Amino acid sequence: MRNIEIKARITDIEKAEAVAVSIAGQAIARVRQVDSYFNVQEGRLKIREEQGSSPRNELIFYRRQDRADPKQSDYRIIAVDSPDSLKRVLAEALGVKAVVRKERTVYLLENSRIHLDSVDGLGTFIELEVPVPNEASGSKARKAVQELMKAFSIEKADLLACSYSDLIGTNG
Fold first, then answer.
1. How far apart are the first and last CA of the chain?
2. Residue 103 to residues 3, 22, 28, 29, 123: CA-CA distances in angstroms?
3. HEC states along 9-75?
4. Cβ pair 68, 160 in contact under 8 A
5. Non-local CB neighbours of 131 within 8 Å, separated by 6+ positions
């Protein structure tokens, strides 16, 4: 699977929530997520444990360039029934890179996902993700991300090149 995405630091999450509601309507989910990242040579590998109205656990692997502008992310997601057991095995085999804890509010605008995140120890952020179902739709997805950036008044200086795991380091 593939999408075009950005991550940006925001200082006023209430303002971002108001913009999200005005363009996308009410949030589709408010969840607590714990992402355990593991050391890998290429890309990023994490187990996401999600608590909320529809709790779920997933193993997620993704590759993307570490740059601040809208970028392509290639990813795979697998549902996980026993996250604790899998975490123990992966921690033993690969080592834990970081554990990221966050509150996430999710909005959906057509096929675009808007994530407003409050990350423990880091602050508040917005992620925009637009799926790329085929090669021909890549430029359309980039344009959608840029339009959302304008709606949220996201400046180039606000954009992050890296993952939360890179910002937080190991916090076990």
1. 29
2. 22, 21, 14, 11, 11
3. ECCCHHHHHHHHHHHHCCCCEEEEEEEEEECCCCCEEEEEEEECCCCEEEEEEEEECCCCCCEEEEE
4. yes
5. 1, 2, 3, 111, 141
Task: Report, as an integer, the average pLDDT of 72-86.
Answer: 96
CA-to-CA dists, residue 127 to 51, 58, 63, 144, angstroms = 19, 19, 16, 13
Residue 88 corresponds to which tokens in the numbers above? 């123990």
Distance CA 60, CA 48 (A): 7
User: The dihedral of CA 38, 3, 159, 118: what is its sign?
Assistant: negative
Q: Where do we find the tokens 């570490």?
A: 66
The predicted-structure confidence for 14-70, as pLDDT tens digits, reads as follows 999 999 999 999 999 999 999 999 999 999 999 999 997 778 999 999 999 999 999
Position 111: which residue type?
A: N
Do residues 168 and 98 make contact, with C-beta atoms less than 8 angstroms apart?
Answer: yes
> Do the beta carbons of residue 139 and residue 70 sit within 8 Å?
no
Fold for domain 2-168? Hypothetical Protein Pfu-838710-001 (2.40.320)
CB 131 within 8 A of CB 141: yes
- Eight-class DSSP state of 106: E
